[in-house]
Design brief:
The protein is about 50% helix and about 15% strand. The chain is of the alpha+beta class.
């Protein structure tokens, strides 16, 4: 059987080449180079952002190539508009978002005020193919305890409004301000899932179902589970690692569902605690171990995730690559560590941005 498809959406900052400050040039960048039919580049909620999306891929090699192509084309678009592209989940330099003047985004800003205006953050969304809504919801129910370690693996937002936040992923804190964001309780089946989405939109709180910002949800546009918990990764190879781990997790839990294995539920309160700890320390401290509920070193928890999904990794041919890339992240750290290292070396946040620009497309 062929591996499930996977695709990656990444959000990036457009930054000034000299100061590193975010610049509202998304439309200029898109108009400068057009919107290619494949390796899609789009605007986002704020005009200081671009979003890219790969095509569905079955192999890590294909996905790696597309990720680099997407980043390269977005960087070319940014440069044509007089900006650089930076894979930063928050801006190290103090900045205020400038919402995109499209009707939907303007409705969100009017309803949510400062929460929406402050939302100058960049995430990474992983899409994994599923056979049905029933399979997708079963997967969403079962992957819940492992989403916080994926956040830790991607952590790339230590700075907020010109200062060190003390978090590895401060984006996760900013994102949690949305009333529809974060971990979910168990759904039990597709009917219950869709009933909840309907109730949320009927409440006239979220402006539409696209604002259901669960850490994992059914995609509205594709036959996929969409895992949305991660920061945009500083390094393209880390985004590939995140994607294949997510695909293996989806496959592992889909097999468990098909085999009728009992689901051991975790309360939402504990999932929120685990998510907070993952955002606080990333890979540099302890996480909440999904198996025990106790603190454990991040590297150990990610190794447990690797063991949990290894059969699916082997079947997809990803086992060796994932093991190697996990070791690399443990040794060199995530984007959060790279940003703090750049700041320690120069004492200038502009140099943190410059370093990120260089790493985004290398």
């Amino acid at each position: 059987m062929e591996p499930r498809t996977m695709g990656v959406e990444e959000e990036f900052l457009l930054v000034d080449p000299d100061s590193g400050r975010p610049r509202a040039l998304a439309w200029a960048a898109l108009n400068a180079t057009g919107r290619p039919a494949e390796h899609q580049i789009e605007d986002e909620m704020q005009l200081q952002q671009l979003e890219t999306g790969t095509e569905p891929c079955q192999s890590l090699g294909e996905l790696d190539k597309q990720l680099r192509t997407c980043r390269g084309r977005a960087a070319e678009s940014a440069l044509a508009a007089g900006a650089h592209l930076a894979a930063l989940a928050t801006s190290p330099i103090a900045a205020t978002g400038l919402p995109t003047p499209e009707a939907r985004y303007q409705r969100i800003v009017r309803r949510f005020g400062l929460v929406a205006e402050d939302e100058l953050t960049c995430g990474c969304h992983i899409h994994v193919g599923v056979d049905s809504d029933a399979e997708g919801v079963a997967v969403i129910d079962r992957i819940r305890p492992w989403l916080a370690p994926l956040l830790a693996l991607s952590a790339n937002s230590p700075f907020w409004q010109g200062r060190d936040s003390s978090y590895a992923s401060y984006r996760s804190q900013v994102w949690s301000r949305w009333p529809s964001a974060g971990p979910t309780e168990l759904f039990g089946g597709p009917e219950q899932y869709h009933e909840l989405i309907h109730a949320m939109t009927a409440s006239d709180t979220v402006v539409d179902s696209g604002m259901v910002y669960f850490d994992a949800r059914l995609s509205e546009h594709y036959p996929t589970v969409e895992v949305r918990v991660a920061d945009v990764c500083l390094h393209a190879e880390d985004a590939g690692l995140l994607a294949v781990l997510t695909r293996a997790l989806v496959e592992t839990e889909a097999r468990a569902w098909r085999d009728g294995r009992t689901l051991a539920p975790t309360r939402g309160e504990l999932l929120r605690l685990a998510r907070w700890r993952a955002g606080r320390s990333g890979m540099a401290g302890d996480l909440v171990d999904p198996g025990t509920g106790r603190p454990a070193p991040a590297a150990s928890v990610l190794r447990d995730l690797y063991s949990h999904v290894r059969s699916a990794l082997v079947d997809a041919g990803d086992d060796d690559a994932v093991s190697t890339r996990l070791d690399l992240v443990v040794r060199r750290g995530t984007g959060a560590e790279a940003q703090r290292k750049a700041y320690r070396e120069s004492g200038r946040l502009a140099d943190v941005v410059s370093d990120a620009v260089r790493r985004t497309t290398t």
